[in-house]
Fold:
Amino acid sequence: MDGLPPPLEGVTVVAVEQAVAAPFATRQLADLGARVIKVERIDGGDFARGYDTAAAGLASHFVWCNRGKESIALDLKDPRGLDVVRRLIADADVFVQNLAQGAAARLGLDAATLCAAHPRLIAVDVSGYGSGGPYAGKRAYDMLVQCEAGLVSVTGTPGQPVKAGIPAADIAAGMYAFSGVLAALVRRGTTGRGGPVEVSMLEALAEWMGHPLHHTIHGGTPPERTGLAHAVIAPYDAYPTADGGRVLLSVQNDREWRRLAERVLGRPGLGTDPEFATNAARVRHRERTDALVGEALGALGTDEALALLEAAGIACARLRDLRELNEHPQLAARERWREVGSPVGPLRALLPPITLPGGSEARMGDVPALGEHTEALLRTAGMTDEEIAALRRDGVAA
Structure:
């Protein structure tokens, strides 16, 4: 098993992509060994490059989603720029795009057109709402799709719905596009044919809404927004500790409640008290349940509270901020941090969560500068020195 190559070594991906959904999908492919050629606009490139300058002068979204790719900057409105993309696609295994609805078709880069011309090609269309239906032409930014998919309705406090703090719709679509490519590659291995893959942000996030959706359509009532608490389990919340921290605990069954009552709350009688003995009873008396837990944990320091809960066999966690995540002892112990190159020097980044023991480590390549690989890729596409000079002179390539 030792020395196995990256699973996608030899696979070439061409991506006309922007923002998060498609770039996140293709970054997963790059981490697994695929060659990913990122086609960007000549006037600034992927607009995620301009979101912020938080990553040592680079945009944090772009650094996250675009390591390990080769960047070529082209004007696709010019037939010569579009011809370069078509040449690159002709030698590719996978094509991914998440342009505005209808734009890929106007350029002849939609999945149906490309797969008809290249039967082995896997062509992925990532959209906001899908290719048909009344929402097909709507703009689809992450927060908008979170609202349309109902995520915002179940996130927040009883008095205030809030969006997720990460681009959940983009990530959901990106992961389904990634897994769709893997499935299509397996199918091509047995049939010899590629084919289209379609993923929409709405449908991806609607799938992730499965629990509250089934709770509503089969049970008749939507789950209430409960902040950090759980809508149907108690106690399940974050509780302040004496040193200013917060500890989240989750009691999943009545046996655990009895252990919590005896070993943490110091009140074993609560384990059999009819007002608290069952989860249904504790949910009915949630405020009193939380008050009992809060009183006990509020008298302890964070480390002391966690140690006591662990000793009692109660699932618990420290409520961490992002600086604390950066220093998480589990990530350090498992050696999950690496450095990736970038135009501003090395940047700290996490290994991807897919680990394949016995094979080579994930390829965490550099974050590319805009057009960093334009010349090399133009030569790959068969362009001569004179043609390359003309493309640059006319502003078709940068």
User: Anything to note?
Assistant: The CA atoms of residues 33 and 79 lie 31 Å apart. The two ends are 43 Å apart (CA to CA).
